[in-house]
Automatic annotation (TrEMBL), chain A:
<feature type="domain" description="Leucine-binding protein">
    <location>
        <begin position="25"/>
        <end position="375"/>
    </location>
</feature>
<dbReference type="InterPro" id="IPR028081">
    <property type="entry name" value="Leu-bd"/>
</dbReference>
<keyword id="KW-0813">Transport</keyword>
<dbReference type="GO" id="GO:0006865">
    <property type="term" value="P:amino acid transport"/>
</dbReference>
<dbReference type="InterPro" id="IPR051010">
    <property type="entry name" value="BCAA_transport"/>
</dbReference>
<dbReference type="Pfam" id="PF13458">
    <property type="entry name" value="Peripla_BP_6"/>
</dbReference>
<keyword id="KW-0029">Amino-acid transport</keyword>
<keyword id="KW-0732">Signal</keyword>
<dbReference type="InterPro" id="IPR028082">
    <property type="entry name" value="Peripla_BP_I"/>
</dbReference>
TrEMBL record, chain B:
<feature type="transmembrane region" description="Helical">
    <location>
        <begin position="236"/>
        <end position="261"/>
    </location>
</feature>
<keyword id="KW-0812">Transmembrane</keyword>
<feature type="transmembrane region" description="Helical">
    <location>
        <begin position="43"/>
        <end position="69"/>
    </location>
</feature>
<feature type="transmembrane region" description="Helical">
    <location>
        <begin position="100"/>
        <end position="123"/>
    </location>
</feature>
<dbReference type="Pfam" id="PF02653">
    <property type="entry name" value="BPD_transp_2"/>
</dbReference>
<dbReference type="GO" id="GO:0022857">
    <property type="term" value="F:transmembrane transporter activity"/>
</dbReference>
<protein>
    <submittedName>
        <fullName>Branched-chain amino acid ABC transporter permease</fullName>
    </submittedName>
</protein>
<feature type="transmembrane region" description="Helical">
    <location>
        <begin position="76"/>
        <end position="94"/>
    </location>
</feature>
<keyword id="KW-0029">Amino-acid transport</keyword>
Length: 416, 336
């Protein structure tokens, strides 16, 4: 009896999914880091994605978008597992994935095994993803970690007068890329990077790392994100640290600036660079902030969207607009969609974005400084806006190729 | 001690030399050659102190775990969830009342109550069935993790450190002599020292309670032979509930400690479960001194590893575990 009714339920659900198919849905798989060190980043990324759906709607002509979400934990194997599950079990046709640097490299390589599908990068920012052997069906509408640091090195050297700095960063591709961008510009301007410390992603106890920070530097650059950044700041405060700080793009970000507790106050006055600035006065940005705020109750969001929300918003927007251009036509291995994605220029909240020949974003970058709004909330205030930042950071591609790929020790601290 | 030296003279010599070298490293002014080879003394001293204080936190989590295992042969894989739950309770209390001390008391009581409920509602029903208990506790830890994610979200929480504990203190340990002849002493975060002292006090109190009181005697008798103890008329189920409550409460306190000098977020539960598993495997399942030794060894390995071999830091703890399992599978301080 039980078996019989179970069979009936299974049959009816099959029929139901059959009818769903008849309504012409386009299935899109989304991944975000909803567990582990970067949980908060993944959650806010999904808020950005939801905001885009609220603003743009889910209709593509007479078809409707359907999203299936899978969780990862910032490790490459978790991302490939999630993407594989979305493709094989949920039969998604398009992917909006992934969030984090190492995941990006893994998913790009995986994308090559499914040339018929389309992959839109959600937020990951390692340079290698689109710079080395890019996948023809992988599109990235956010800049990489090095592009997000453009302007910071010069600002630190020229305006702040820092001459010697040390860096602390998480030991994986995105932070390598961020430090790559910083070192290139800071050392190019004449500065010195005396020490680069790397800590495993998910480090909780930074006390020894903090003790090993050099004293004889003008500032310390922090390339940390999520729980790692909060733990570092907390212990830095307890150890009585007083050095000038500089921050990477996910360090000076609402994910950290609105964390609970007082540790974040160490960041007031910190200079940073990122693909966005919380207080930018551009009407497009302000509209996006408003849409984000209106989409969620105040306790369920940050005061202002994080970089991840902005990236997820931008990638979702690019995908929806491109799908509308081709009227949801996914025939012939989605050739029309891929063509449209490669050519589309979007008016993203954080400036205009277009893709280069590697399908990597060229966009706007922001140098910022952390300010207290007087009510205890911290925001990144825009100091400088730099439009049209490309992946080779303005270098001649041949010169850029000689620098090498971002790693623990690359680039050397010199003028290229 | 004397017997150990008689039985293993070679080992004893190695241990004595190692202790002497360590003491010299801690108290002497390092010659320039040594500083050039392995870095500044300040970094080394900090790493050692951090290792020991981190060991204090690991001890708090692992001692409850090992106590429960020792008495009830019950591998409670939801122990990490109790840790995280305690931390969240501590956060809520400290932000609501502004009292750091009160948050420890409330966290202890609340988590101990959860422990009592777990023991009465779950473990009592499947006494002696190891596999079933293991599976059920894994299941419970997943359920707890999702419930806490639902209530508290994925945000990072930090228990507010009271103002008088913020900042460093000067320790009477020389790190260097300046060229002017002025000595430089070590600066160290006060909160970590206080937390370490507290865990030492708790450890000693537990040892005294186990070895000098009547209830401790009953618990120890239970560890040795439950059935005979029950046959003598002791209400063994009551003792079980008490021990479970104590072990869970300790995990709750540890959660507040962890939330004070690290942070609380989803995923911390499994991290601390793993840490306490490694600690008790190294120290010996069911032994309180073993948990203390294991906690200090793992804490030191993590911190020294993160400074001197950052690339392989994660591996070091597991290497130690493998080594112990290969050489002394019952753990360093376990009785046979």
């Amino acid at each position: 009896m039980l078996k019989g009714s179970l069979g009936l339920i299974a049959l009816s659900s099959l029929l139901l999914s059959g009818t769903a198919f008849a309504q012409e849905k386009i299935k899109v798989g989304v991944t975000a880091t909803l567990e582990g060190t970067y949980t908060v980043l993944g959650e806010d990324g999904m808020r950005g994605h939801q905001t885009a759906l609220n603003v743009l709607g889910k209709k593509i002509g007479d078809k409707e978008l359907e999203f299936v979400v899978a969780s990862t934990d910032a490790t490459p194997d978790s991302a490939v597992r999630a993407v594989r599950k979305l493709i094989e079990q949920d039969k998604v046709q398009i992917l909006l994935s992934p969030l984090s640097g190492d995941e990006g490299i893994a998913v790009k390589n995986f994308a090559k095994t499914h040339p018929e599908l389309t992959f839109v990068n959600a937020a990951s920012g390692a340079q290698e993803t689109t710079y080395v052997d890019p996948a023809p069906n992988f599109f990235r509408y956010n800049m990489d970690g090095a592009q997000w640091q453009v302007g910071l090195g010069k600002y630190a050297y020229e305006t702040k007068g820092y001459r010697k700095i040390a860096t602390v960063g998480e030991d994986y591709s995105f932070i390598y890329t961020q430090v790559f961008g910083l070192v290139l510009e800071f050392c190019g301007a004449g500065g010195q990077v005396t020490n680069r410390q790397w800590v495993p992603l998910g480090t909780k106890d930074f006390a020894s790392v903090i003790a090993a920070l050099p004293d004889d530097v003008d500032a310390i650059y922090l390339g940390l994100g999520g729980a790692d950044a909060v733990n570092f700041l907390n212990q830095y405060q307890q150890a009585g640290g007083k050095a000038h700080l500089m921050g990477g793009s996910i360090m000076i970000d609402q994910t950290i600036l609105s964390s609970k507790g007082s540790a974040k106050n160490a960041l007031v006055g910190t200079i940073a660079a990122s693909g966005q600035a919380d207080t930018w006065e551009d009407p497009g940005w302000q509209k996006f902030v408003k849409a984000y705020q209106d989409s969620f109750p105040e306790s369920k969001r940050f005061p202002s969207p994080s970089l991840l929300a902005t990236n997820y918003y931008g990638s979702t927007m690019a995908l929806i607009l491109a799908l509308r251009q081709v009227n949801g036509d996914l025939s012939n291995n989605q050739a029309k969609l891929k063509d449209a994605l490669a050519k589309i220029e979007i008016d993203a909240p954080n400036g205009k974005i277009k893709l280069d020949s590697n399908r990597q974003a060229i966009g706007t970058n922001f140098v910022t400084e952390v300010v207290d709004d007087g009510k205890g909330a911290l925001f990144s205030k825009v100091v400088k806006v730099i439009p049209n930042v490309n992946q080779t950071l303005g270098y001649d591609p041949a010169v850029f190729a000689k620098i090498g790929l971002p790693s623990r020790t690359v680039p050397e601290c010199k003028k290229y | 001690m004397a017997r150990f030296i008689e039985r293993h003279p070679a080992w004893a010599l190695i241990v004595i030399i190692a202790v002497a070298v360590l003491l010299w490293l801690v108290f002497a002014i390092w010659p320039p050659g040594l500083e050039a080879a392995i870095g500044r003394k300040r970094v080394f001293l900090n790493a050692v102190l951090n290792g020991i204080t981190l060991g204090g936190l690991y001890f708090l989590v692992a001692s409850g775990f090992t106590l429960i295992f020792g008495l009830m042969r019950n591998v409670n894989l939801a122990h990490g969830s109790l840790y995280l739950f305690g931390g969240y309770i501590g956060y809520a209390v400290s932000t609501w009342t502004g009292s750091w001390i009160l948050s420890f008391i409330v966290a202890f009581i609340a988590v101990a109550l959860v422990g009592v409920i777990l023991q009465l509602a779950v473990f009592r029903r499947m006494e002696g069935q190891d596999l079933r208990q293991t599976m059920v506790t894994i299941g419970l830890s997943i359920v707890f993790a999702d419930l806490m994610l639902w209530v508290f979200g994925g945000d990072f929480y930090q228990v507010q450190t009271p103002a008088w504990l913020i900042g460093p203190v000067q320790l009477p340990l020389l790190t260097a002599i300046k060229s002017s002849g002025e000595p430089v002493y070590l600066q160290y975060p006060l909160v970590r020292l206080v937390i370490f002292l507290a865990s030492v006090v708790i450890g000693i109190a537990m040892w005294l309670a186990l070895n000098r009181t009547r209830i401790g005697m009953i618990v120890r008798a239970g560890v040795d032979d439950r059935d005979i103890l029950a046959a003598t008329g002791v209400r063994i189920q009551f003792v079980f509930v008490l021990v479970f409550a104590l072990g869970a409460g300790l995990a709750g306190i540890a959660g507040v400690v962890g939330g004070t000098f690290q942070s609380l977020s989803p995923g911390e539960d499994t991290r601390f479960l793993l840490a306490s598993l490694v600690v008790v495997i190294v120290g010996g399942m069911g032994s309180i001194p073993g948990a203390a030794l294991g906690a200090v060894i793992i804490g030191l390995a993590e911190q020294l590893g993160s400074v001197y071999i950052p690339t392989y830091a994660i591996v070091v703890t597991f290497l130690i575990m493998v080594l112990v399992l290969a050489v002394r599978p019952q753990g360093l301080l376990a009785r046979r």
